[in-house]
Design brief:
The chain is of the alpha/beta class. It has 13 helices and 16 strands. Helix 1 crosses helix 12, helix 9 packs across helix 10 and helix 12 crosses helix 13.
């Protein structure tokens, strides 16, 4: 299979689609190679029982400047700008204890700048023997997917400082939006993993199980877990990019969904937190959009339960927490619906990236082009909107602009066409 394209994009997630939209708008011939059988990457909406459930990214973080908001509205998707429910008081938890735990988390955040100037290890900002350290660990796990010992304080603060705190949603699903946003002009080959990328005299050659495809440039948008591994053989000289990817490992974040089988006291669009004293605790979105569903979100140690013990253990854990919060009567009303397994997915390998202590510079390193023919994008390459679908999108746009500049420089005729 021999084909010629201006650009080949490896990876059909938010970054790849962001790059494809930019390149297609300039009239380039673009091919997208996606290893899995669907678009979206870590943005994935699954319809279960008529409920579009987001297995991956769910919230339009920093909504006022999130590129997916404009894409959604231009495409006819509604955007819910209501405040998320997680700021409310948690049922089943003493309010004084909730306030104390949240204060401990704020205090940990306030100590991070000092830690960033030293060890850069976020765990060093924990209060020694602190009563609410388990809560801090759980929240850090939700946000970064790893324990504070593996979080760069400087990296964590870069995201926190840039975030606007506005979190909106797409009722039809964030994953639905992302997957629907690939321009029709872009050629797409699903279930076609790239196995090898080589530089040629005039561009790149990408080897797949179906043959070799040639282009002037390639944009690589795969996860850091894939990039740091050996699934794709890269050109000689790219060792520094693999090392940067390894410094930005994917954390653990998983979801468990339960269906509410009969009338209960669960309030629609409400929120709950499992156990303030357990780092494995889940955060619960209860009856989102009024649906008879509970979504349990796990991070770090909580997500480890699903990764290592499987869905049944995850269902058992969340059922126990919900019974503790709402009483034994709810046990018979809850039925397992679905559970995610991002860490077990070979073409992804986890949730979102987190810079290891002392490694926050790796994001900028990973974003650098190689020989002006291989460009890198993905949430891990964004300087402050990492871990988000809009950060991934924007990184794809950045890589597309770099690719356009490289093509202009080496193809005079191409340059004239773009300027005409």
């Amino acid at each position: 299979m021999e084909s010629a394209f201006d650009v080949i994009i490896v990876g059909g997630g938010a970054a790849g689609i962001g790059a494809a939209r930019r390149l297609a708008a300039h009239g380039l011939t673009v091919l997208m190679l996606e290893a899995s059988s669907r678009l979206g990457g870590r943005a994935f909406t699954q319809d279960l029982g008529g409920y579009p459930l987001d297995f991956g990214c769910e919230w339009l973080h920093s909504g006022e400047r999130n590129a997916w908001v404009a894409i959604a509205e231009a495409s006819g998707f509604s955007v819910d700008r209501s405040e998320p429910p997680w700021a409310k008081a948690h049922p089943g938890i003493v309010q004084d204890e909730q306030e104390a735990a949240q204060r401990a988390f704020r205090d940990w955040n306030e100590r991070l700048p000092h830690v960033a100037q030293g060890s850069d290890r976020a765990s060093d900002a924990l209060e020694p023997g602190g009563k609410w350290n388990a809560y801090v660990r759980a929240i850090a796990g939700f946000m970064s997917g790893v324990a504070p010992e593996r979080i760069s304080a400087a990296d964590y603060m870069a995201y926190d400082t840039a975030s606007t705190g506005r979190n909106w949603s797409v009722p039809l699903g964030y994953g639905t939006l992302v997957a629907a946003s690939l321009p029709s002009a872009v050629a797409l080959r699903l279930a076609t993993p790239a196995e090898r990328i080589d530089l040629t005299a005039d561009g790149v050659a990408i080897t797949t199980r179906a043959g070799t495809i040639r282009a002037g440039i390639a944009i690589l948008t795969v996860s850091t877990a894939v990039l740091a591994g050996d699934a794709i053989r890269l050109p000689s000289g790219t060792e520094a990019w693999r090392e940067a990817a390894a410094a930005l490992p994917l954390g653990r974040n998983e979801k468990v969904f339960l269906e509410i089988g009969r009338d209960t006291a669960f309030e629609p669009d409400s929120h709950a937190y499992g156990n303030l004293r357990d780092a494995r605790s889940a955060a619960y979105s209860i009856r989102p959009n009024g649906w008879p569903v509970i979504e349990a979100f796990h991070g770090g140690e909580g997500a480890r339960i699903l990764e290592e013990e499987g869905p049944a253990a995850g269902f058992a854990h969340v059922s126990t927490e919900l019974v503790t919060l709402f009483g034994s009567d709810v046990a018979s009303a809850l039925r397992p619906l679905a559970a995610t397994s991002w860490s077990r997915m070979a073409f992804i390998g986890g949730a979102y990236s987190c810079a290891l202590p002392g490694q926050s510079y790796a994001r900028a390193r990973l974003a650098q082009p190689f020989e002006d023919r291989l460009f890198f994008a993905g949430e891990a390459t964004h300087p402050f909107d990492f871990t988000t679908a809009h950060g991934a999108h924007d990184s794809g746009v950045r890589a597309a602009d770099e690719a356009l500049a490289a093509l202009r420089a080496k193809r005079p005729a191409f340059r004239r066409a773009l300027l005409s």
